[in-house]
Amino acid sequence: MAAEEKARSTYEYLIRVSDDPGVTDTLRFLREREIVHFQRFGETLRIVQEYMDCKKYY
């Protein structure tokens, strides 16, 4: 998850310094994709943690 957060931060920096609308649009798309990845990884981590915390009966 740290990689997605770092990528998002990098895209935000590049968006700020870019003056090309095409590059900026592409970077915005990539940033949004990283945000979604971060959210999905977080959801998956929560599901796995819940599964690991539940009692198992054999």
From TrEMBL:
Quick one: which residues bind Mn(2+)? 4, 37
What does the entry's cofactor note say about binding and number?
Answer: Binds 2 manganese ions per subunit.
Q: Which InterPro entries match?
A: Ferritin-like, Ferritin-like_SF, Mn_catalase
Cofactor(s) required for function per UniProt: Mn(2+)
GO molecular function of the protein, one example?
A: metal ion binding
The UniProt family comment states: Belongs to the manganese catalase family.
Record-given protein name:
Manganese containing catalase
Name the keywords, alphabetized.
Manganese, Metal-binding
